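User: Can you model how 5'-deoxyadenosine sits in this protein?
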Amino acid sequence: MTGPVLPLGGVRYAFHTFGCQMNENDTERLAGYLEAAGAVPAGSIESADLVVINTCSVRAKSEEKLFSLLGRLRSLKKKHPFLVGVAGCVAQVRKDRLPEPKSGVDFVIGFDQYHRIAEIAAESRHRKMIETSRRRIFREDPVPPVRESPWSGYVTIMEGCDNFCAYCIVPFTRGRERFRPLSAILEEVRGLAAKGFREIQLLGQNVNNYRDPKTGTDFAALLSLVAAVPGPEWVRFLTSHPKNVPPALAEAMARTPKICRQLHLPLQSGSTAVLERMKRGYTRERYLETVRTLRSLMPELRLSADIIVGYPGETEVEFEETLSALSEIRYAGIFSFCYSPRPLTAAAGLVDDIPPEVKRRRLAAVQALQKDIQTAFHQTLLGKVEKVLAVGRSKKDPAVFAGRNEGNQVVNFQGPEDCLGRFVDVEITSVGPYSLRGRMLTR
Ligand code: 5AD
Ligand code: SF4
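Assistant: Here's the modeled complex, given as structure tokens:
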């Protein structure tokens, strides 16, 4: 007996993923659809018949990376033919520019067409395809994702963003906020628990806004329900918006040991005036107050943030307020960026008046200060024992394992082969500003 003819039967696929965890999760979903249509993983871009690039457009630099990868793929295509698809945020906003005859792009696929990727890829063997229309409701995937990790699973709880921060392109690429039904979220979490997943990472652009479409259950309640599913030992989530960290959320975190004592709370700027121009919806003082409340409930909470320097009109004094906020808050880690204007955003209409060399100097100052803060913090961890989920091997030395602690920091350690996928105790033996190293203790 022969089975049905699958549109991508035997096609070898590979992904290149830029950007955030949301994109990583989307790649896993897209791979699920490709495999359901008969495609198989190629192992590398060089040996693939179909390469899908999942793109990010949050900063100008992210977008530039796509265009240099496309250049590389065009020269590879001269050696052997394969299909190139572009998904993600750049696909959504630059759809008209991408498939020009010379780009090497065979199809462009928007977020709302992901379930049709197999059909679109198959069709694009005959003609270039662009499919990027938008919708307003959350749609469940009928096929399971192909998850990269068998231990740590992403679970989407919402899509899109309604905040329209003045600099940010996300509301234009990922569209309006859409919440996934609570029942579907819990079903996916239970499925992961049954498969032995150790950690659940709830994903959304703005998780604090979550409301179950039917019952109105909020994010704090959702978090408690997810944590009550037996099996996984850690639950974490991102991203939270600082304008809206309700007391119920802080309390749910504080009273539930399974919810990791870790929070990514993007500050962006330490200046109230800049925050106002960014349309962030909070002041420096309110942010600091939120941090105080969280830390009074959870003194061991590890905070991280995103910082933008060189926003239009940012004066030296305003910039220094970002530095002083960093000194006051003492984050466990930050991601810092030079402002770049993005199409469609409100700030794109402002003059990008901070010269590139000033932006670079401010970025360097932020990073130097944070380096000192992290070095001092890491030194306090020397000799301490941290619970670590072993998730892979160190990139530099395959004999060394890599794990993450409850604060989501990477910890490299020596350990036995069978430690992968387990929670292990690691004594921190040496630290750098960006790294923690240790040895595994046997129980
Ligand atoms: N310029 C620089 N950084 C930006 N980010 C978002 N938009 C821009 C932009 N136009 C940063 C913010 C956000 C992170 C994901 O990317 O800090 O939190
Ligand atoms: Fe962008 Fe602001 Fe939405 Fe975050 S909250 S995705 S920064 S618009």
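A couple of observations from the model: Residues 161, 163-165, 168, 170-171, 205-206, 241 surround iron/sulfur cluster (ligand 2) (CB under 6 Å). Residues 89 and 331 are 29 Å apart (CA to CA).
User: Helpful, thanks.
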